Amino acid sequence: MRSLLSFLVPLLTLVSLSSARVHRAPAHHVRQLATTASAPSSVAATASTTVTVSGSVLPTNATSNSTILPTFAFTLQSTNPTAVPLSSIVAGATSAPTSPLSAIPAPGSVPTYLPGAPPLPDPNTLRPADYPPLDKVPPIDSPQVQQWIADVKNSGVAIPGFSPNVLGGCSANPQAASDPNRCWWYCGGCTRKTDITDCPTHMEWGLTYDDGPAYHTTQLLSYLDQVQLKSTFFVVGSRVISFPSILQAEYLDQHQIAVHTWSHSYLTTLTNEQIIAELGWSKKVIKDVLGVTPNIMRPPYGDIDDRVRAISIAMGLTPVIWTRISPTATFDTGDFNINGGLVSVSGVLYNWENIISNATARDRGFIVLEHDLFQQTVEIATGYILPDAIAHNFVIKPVVSCLGLTYQDAYIELNDNKTNPPLIEVSGAVSLTATPSGGLIQSTGTSGNSASKKSASNGLALAVATAFGGLVAGSMIIF
Ligand SMILES: *[C@@H]1O[C@H](CO)[C@@H](O)[C@H](O)[C@H]1NC(C)=O
Ligand SMILES: *[C@@H]1O[C@H](CO)[C@@H](O)[C@H](O)[C@H]1NC(C)=O
Ligand SMILES: *[C@@H]1O[C@H](CO)[C@@H](O)[C@H](O)[C@H]1NC(C)=O
Ligand SMILES: *[C@@H]1O[C@H](CO)[C@@H](O)[C@H](O)[C@H]1NC(C)=O
Ligand SMILES: [Zn+2]
Hints:
Elements: E1 5-8, E2 13-16, H1 27-30, E3 42-45, E4 51-54, E5 66-69, E6 75-76, H2 143-153, H3 169-172, H4 174-177, E7 204-206, E8 208-210, H5 217-226, E9 232-235, H6 237-242, H7 244-252, E10 256-259, H8 272-290, E11 296-297, H9 306-314, E12 318-319, E13 324-326, E14 329-330, H10 345-361, E15 366-367, H11 375-391, E16 395-397, H12 399-402, H13 423-427, E17 430-434, E18 440-444, H14 447-453, H15 459-469
Helix pairs in contact: 2-8, 5-11, 8-9, 10-11, 14-15
The protein binds 2-acetamido-2-deoxy-beta-D-glucopyranose (4 copies) and zinc ion.
């Protein structure tokens, strides 16, 4: 017996269009004042357990900058009975109260699931003044950043010599966008074998949430507890400064913690030194709060090219993006854009429906882009997307687990370097040099293949093993 939820919006959804995707500020800065009048929505369960939700969203106080968002039909197999109505998940939604953490992590606690992990530091000792300003690209002249720059230079990983992109995406950088030697994922979806973009096993979902910790993360955590699911959280260093206890709670609850930069900038637009500062400060603040350092990173917006890849790998971070099945379709729910009024909740659930059918049809598992930054993104995840995913029998795990690795293998200090050699160790055998035209020349050492063969059964290592097998046609790039 399947429950069916169909959502029909009789009226056009009209919400104010925010001028840009404001991705940096904490949720309460970004959230608009409530101006949306919502018609009551009705939820009716019929005898056949079909659930029908009809919601309508009335126009906001229209301005000349308003836009009409198209609405979409979708069906869900299951929803959370306590979900907020879809008609309330809109730009400018009234702020819902945040729920407190179920337990404040005690300093000195040890995550029992993670052998070898040090006791939890006391978050009260965290001094924001010891870190760069929040939500800005960190300066590069500090002793810490200078040390990380030296470490990257000494890593043996050569950084491609091409210059940073300018802001404005593909159209503002036509040459870079069409240069296969840069392998710029954001424009065209190019990946290297070292990129993690899915899970190897059919029907397995490597669950991820980005941009937190934030005000409504606690609500997501308690739902995940309730349904006994674990996730990967790609956290922004600046948000860790603001919510260290939430980060500790995620970690103690057996979620995987991963790096999502310090200021959430477009990494390909930054200099090498700035990228090093973004990743270095993020690693440091996470280690200062948890006692361990993640070994995977997600580039904000998927803005990664070979220069960003090389720097990440040199800093011990394996890039993780999300699944892309065609030039026009990536597994991005679009949830981020509800808050800004750029997409409707029906649009997100329509995207979700396309994702699950494409995910079910493919041989391998998958990774989806979702966020815990906004009230709306948490409400749609806990109320609709996760219950529906569970009903579809997806096997939902953190990324490290879907790759067949242990939780220890998610952190630099605890990783079993023999069975799961960090890319830097393998890449260290390889020298990359920039040609004058900006391409990469590879000279492969001998240890790379043997190092990766030793552990080819493991996820990350498997990616490395195939990396050495396949050169991209004509370009001599090892990634
Ligand atoms: C519409 O948006 C543009 C750009 O964001 C702004 O310059 C303009 O003042 C806005 N107009 C109104 C009526 O709000
Ligand atoms: C729209 O909002 C403005 C400013 O908030 C207010 O002055 C105006 O009366 C509103 N118009 C309507 C039709 O509600
Ligand atoms: C996969 O997603 C695309 C849109 O991204 C959609 O057009 C297509 O129908 C989906 N495929 C399946 C099998 O659902
Ligand atoms: C793996 O190597 C890292 C340095 O890259 C080190 O900090 C860590 O302790 C090593 N792991 C183990 C289990 O020794
Ligand atoms: Zn992000």
